[in-house]
UniProtKB/TrEMBL annotation:
Pfam family, one: LysR_substrate
Similarity comment: family membership: Belongs to the LysR transcriptional regulatory family.
Keywords, comma-separated and alphabetical: DNA-binding, Transcription, Transcription regulation
Organism in which the protein naturally occurs: Mesobacterium hydrothermale
Name of the protein in question: LysR substrate-binding domain-containing protein
Keyword match Membrane: no
InterPro entries noted in UniProt: LysR_HTH_N (IPR000847), LysR_subst-bd (IPR005119), WH-like_DNA-bd_sf (IPR036388), WH_DNA-bd_sf (IPR036390)
Keyword DNA-binding attached: yes
Limits of the HTH lysR-type domain: 3-60
PROSITE patterns: HTH_LYSR
Length: 298
């Protein structure tokens, strides 16, 4: 069954932008046209993709599965369209970089701004996503450079590996931060906010408590270091936070202490093995890699 791409594009824009109005503005067509394309897609796929609630479209679970499947395809066409536009306008190159969320709040935007200074004709494609998706985008050629967490699950990727020490953030006035370096015994049964049980930082923190014979008490699970730090600020517990998230924060409402043993976060910079880097990509890495190495351990 062939589905016209415009229907997928309208569907993707509606979920990505949140409303039919925003999707119509993004695609440069009318709201009725978006609604008609969505209705055509539901008829063609025989799937109920939206619930109509108080005048709003609420995506169904089936819609979320479909979105994940077509995301790379739609972004790929957007990437091609941008490349055509750049060629037509004789632009002086495009920086194409994607990263995990931790690096997107301060570090990488700052580096992009530094790189763009003095390059008025440079166009920039920058997105943040979960690490697995970043790797998919680089493999598919949607982005030239990816910065993400280990492990690397995509084949044929060049990898530059860095390790960063996470620090223990605790609510201000918690009463357990009177030492410059904390151990699992110091935080025995103290509530923790973690990045999911399978995340490397959560796993390594749990292993440190287990080795020390201390109780690792998990109070909250979340998906971003930024979210974990915000929960710390609200007094819900401690969290191991990466240095990039900490450096992009105002530092209010919490204290930071080193943790012994060190809990490390593995970050890789990935590029496609089968595709040579552009001159723009090489120059950007020449700037960014030393900056990452300056923060890394070892």
């Amino acid at each position: 069954m062939s589905t016209p791409f415009r229907q997928f594009q309208a569907f993707h824009a509606t979920l990505q932008r949140g409303t039919v109005t925003a999707a119509a503005e993004y695609l440069g067509i009318s709201q009725p046209a978006i609604s008609n394309l969505l209705a055509q897609l539901e008829r063609r796929t025989k799937l109920k993709l939206f619930e109509r609630t108080r005048g709003r479209l609420v995506p169904t679970p089936e819609a979320m599965v479909l979105f994940d499947e077509i995301d790379t395809v739609v972004r790929g066409l957007d990437h091609v369209n941008q490349a055509v536009t750049d060629l037509q306008n004789q632009k002086a190159g495009q920086l194409q970089v994607a990263c995990n969320h931790a690096l997107a709040f301060g570090f990488l935007p700052n580096e992009i701004a530094r790189f763009a200074k003095g390059r008025p004709n440079l166009t920039i494609a920058f997105q943040s996503q979960y690490s697995g998706k970043v790797q998919e985008w680089v493999t598919a050629g949607l982005f030239e450079i990816g910065l993400c967490e280990m492990p690397v699950r995509q084949e044929a990727m060049e990898q530059r590996h860095f390790r960063f020490e996470t620090l223990c953030a605790l609510p201000e006035g918690s009463g357990v931060a009177d030492k410059p370096v904390l151990t699992p015994s110091d935080l025995d049964s103290y509530p923790f906010i973690v990045m999911g049980n399978d995340h490397m930082v959560s796993r390594r923190t749990r292993e440190a408590f287990l080795s020390d014979g201390a109780h690792f008490r998990i109070r909250c699970h979340t998906d971003l270091f930024r979210n974990a730090l915000n929960l710390v600020k609200q007094g819900l517990g401690a969290a191991m936070i990466d240095p990039f998230t900490l450096s992009a924060d105002d530092g209010a409402g919490y204290v930071v202490r080193r943790f012994d043993p060190a809990v490390l976060l593995d970050i890789v910079v990935v590029t496609a093995k089968d595709k040579p880097l552009s001159a723009i990509g090489r120059e950007f890495l020449d700037q960014v890699l030393p900056r990452m190495q300056a923060v890394a351990v070892g």
